[in-house]
Every structure is written in structure tokens, then in C-alpha cells.
Amino acid sequence: MNDRTAEKEREIQKEQKPSFHHLLRLFLYVFRATKGISCIYLGLFVLLSFLRPLIAEIWGRYISVVENAGNRVTEAALMLVLYWGISFAADLLESYLAPEGGGDFEQLDMIQANRQQELFKVHLLKKVNSVSPEYLEAPVMKDRMRQVFDFAGDSWNGINRKVMISGYVVVAKVISVLTIAAALYLYHPLLSILVLLAPLPTLYSVSLGEKLQFRFVKESTELQRETEYFEELLLSPAEKEIKTLGLHDFFYGKWKERADAYVIRQKKLIRNRALLQIVNSLFYNLAHVGGMVLAILLLAQGKLSLGAMSAVFAMTGTLITDSAQLIRAFGSFQAQKNRAAQFFDLMDLKEDASREPEKVLLHRAEAKGVKYRYPLTGRYTLKGVDFTLHPGEKVAFVGENGAGKSTFVKLLTGMLSPSEGRLLLNGKRMEDLHPESHFDAQSVVVQDPTHYETFTLYENVFLGETHRPYEEKTVQKALAFSGLASLENRLLGKYVGGTDLSGGQWQKLAIARAAYRNRDLIVLDEPTSNLDPLAETEIFKKYNSLAKDKTVIYVTHRISVAKLADRIIVFKNGKIEEDGTFDELMKLKGEFARLYEVQSQWYDR
Q: Which PANTHER family does the protein's record reference (predicted)?
């Protein structure tokens, strides 16, 4: 049978070969999305590219006028004023457009960068929401997403400076270089040829430097992620447990080992790029000096006037500078094709079918020969599960760790798709249903619920169903149901000045959220692991009474709680080992009876 997980693996592992096409596609993608501010920025760069050769030409003519002054003093004065006026405007514009510039245009840079970050994150978050959650099970996909998000948000080495501004510079400097080269050609062909050819070797070194930067980012992402994890661990509430166990030095050593390895790689990158920069400067200076020497020789041969030589000097300097900036910008721009391809690797992932959501009522759920393995792993977690769930049933899934209970629940709730076999809801394949339709039909409480901080207690409950108007009385009923009626409605989260809850209280809050959501299918995936057995039993009894006409799936390690279910499913080694009522399974004296005996101390109460 066809392994459908293999299709997702191919999508995850697929990396488009970086090309200039990806880069142009990315540039136009961002340009169209930020058209207004992008046009302003590009226009300013192009304006500057025309001002520099104009200044050089005015200076040359000024020298010619001064050389043959006579009665042309007024003309010389006007040309000098014009020269300094345009020079001042060009210097001011250049200082604002430079990355280290200050003033209104730098603010424009930040506005553009912020707009692009917002654009990217909106598109990326929408993309993440539109693809199968299964992709996120693969660490390589998480790394790829982290790299793309970092690229979008990096103010210095991100998309704003490395793609957009570099692209503007390339367009502007091409105009400038061609204009000046044409002017120099009119003075003497060798002048334009010399200054155009000399900086070309730097194109390779700039491109190489950017490739080194990309390789460093790609190879260091996992190392950086581990460093951040250990850093957060040492600064989080877990530090209390770490201190009591005497693990601070152990985790500090883990953090330092990875931080040092990251710094060593970073130092190597900086050293190599510094050497490349020295080579670049050498070529620039040689070309500049060569142009000046050639101009002096032409003056000595009478082929250039003093004014023309002055213009040539100015144009040569501008051309060398602009050629260098063009090559640097193009090298930087061109080197981002790797990241552009990486961005489209993510954006081109297959999305869940774009069907319209529909109201789904659970009548019957069936698993037929379901097998499942997580992407990029060879071992099957589920090895052929056959199961039928009828509406109104209260079913408990039990089994040891790794038996496949939670994985099967993820399949039933639509978070994963079978590698082999079929999952049917009301006779339809779950893959053929819109994901939102499936998610909307269920209330799910997981073992480690998310702590929605920066929201109040009541708002946390309201997050269970934000598509209907807020109902405070219903929120209070849900809190009472979960045992949190005595808590005040305060802001949650210490770092925002609110209060914190215990682990058990956070779990009860998640249960309140599910009660407020009030769906036909209720899935409780070990939601009470931080509660004592009595509290867990009480919660399950409440759900049974609350959900008389609803379907409830309860995943638990505590066999005593399974007594309260209409039906018990025992998982073992990725298969359903036993299926029946409590009394039926105890009479079998099989796996369930063994687990019951092992855990008997829990229910002698």
C-alpha cells in the first residue's frame, strides 16, 4: 500500500535549486506588496545616481571657465554656486540613504523594514495555518521556518537591506555607471574600459562572502536553537527545580559548550569576510589610481584640457566608487538567492485543499487498517488499527507510554493523516473534509496546555470559542465546572504584571476552555496529569454528566478512571490489544487486567 507519509517527506526534503529567478521573484513579491514606499526609495537612489556625474561635469566646466576667465567671472561664480548647491544636496541625500545615516530617510528605511516584516510574517503565519500540522513534526521544517522568520526580521542582514535596498542600489548604480562610462568614453575610450574592468574581480569575492554568511546561518541554526533553549531553561521557573537537583552547573556547561561553538564559527566567518574586504579595497584603489595616471598622460599629450582632466578625475572617482557599490550590492543581492529559494520552499508547500468549511456532526468515526509513522522516521507508531466510534460513546484509551494512544488521538482530531489505511468520518475520508470543519466539531484538552498569558482569567476561557459573542455567565459556569470558580478575574502572566497559576490550575483552565467551547466530540488527552487521582476522577465524572449526549474520548494512564467509561480501548505496541467494558476486560485477564493490578494502589480509596 502507498505510504502517504512518504509524500509529505518528499515535500519536507524538497529544496529548490537556488537561482536568480527566485531572487527576482522575491524582490517583485515584496516590491508589489510595499509599492508606495518602495517607489519612493528607488526614486531617491536613482536621483542620486544622476547627481554625481552631473556634479563632475559642472566641476570640469567650472575649471575650463576659470582657466579662460576673461569677462566670464559672473559665469564662473554661478557655476561654483551651482556646483556647491548640487553637491550639498547629493551629500545630504547620500547620508540619509546610507545604512548608517540619520534623519528622516533612515526613519523611512525603518518604516519600509517594519512593513516588510509585517508582510512576511502575515504571509508566513497564514501559510503555516494552511498546511498540514504534520509538517511541523519535522525538526528540519521548524529550522527552515526559523531561518525564514529571522531573515525577515533581521534589520541588518535581512530582506530589507540585503534584497530590497541592495536591489535599489543595483538599479541606481547601473544607471550611474553607464552614464559616467559613456561620458568618459567621449573623452577617451581607455578611461571607461579601465575603470569598468578593474573592479570585476571583486564580484566573485563579494558573492563568496555572502555564500559564507548563508552557510553559517544554515549550519548554525540548530546550534543557536539549542543555545537559546538552555539559556531559557536557566532563566525560566524551571531554575528552581534545577537548583534543588544541583543541575545548574550541568546545564550551564551545556549552554557554554554550544555558545562557544557558535562564537567560534562566527569568528571564522568574520575573519574570512574581513580578508575578502581587504582584497576588494586593493582592486578599487588600483583602478582609481590607474584612471588618474591615464588622465594625466592624456593631459601631457594635449589630448585633454585642464577642465576636462578635472572632470575626468571627478568622474573616475565617482565611477570607481559607484562600480564598487554596484558590484558589492549585486554580489549581496545575488547571494540572497539561497534565502529566496528557502522562502519559496516554504511558501510552495502543498496546502490543505481549499474547500469551503461545512458544519460537521459526528455520527460515526472509523479507522480501517490505520498505520502511521512520523515524517523522516522509519518506525511505525501505529501498526494497523481498526476502530469504530459511535456518537454518544464515552471511550477511554489506556496503555503504557509509547503504545500509540496520543498518536491515534492526533489522527482522530485531524492533526495527522494516516500513512496507510483509512480514517472515515460519517463515511467520508477525513482528508476530504476541510480541516476547519473537523477542528470546529471538537473540543480538545491536551496534557500540556498552552499558557495564554497577557489575557485575563475570563478571556482565557473565552478563547475556547471566539466566534460567538462573549458570555460572562457561561464563562463562570465553565470555571465552576473545572473547579476554578474561586479565582479572581485577573490578568495572567508574571512578566506582564499579572498573576501566575500552578500547573494544575493551568490544566483546569484548559478544561474550562473546552467546557465553554461545548462541542459534540470532546477529547481529553491526559488533561489531568498535574491533578491528583481524586480530582481527575471528579473531572471525568463531571464530563460524563455534562456530556450525556456527546462523544467523549479520554486518554489516561490511570486505569481506575477508565472504569467510568462505557468502553475501554487498550493500546499496546501500536495496535489495539483489547476492546470492551471494564468488567469484560477484567474477565479476559489480559493486558488491561495486568495494568489494573500494577496500578491497584491508585484505586484503593
A: ATP-BINDING CASSETTE SUB-FAMILY B MEMBER 10, MITOCHONDRIAL, ATP-DEPENDENT PERMEASE MDL1, MITOCHONDRIAL
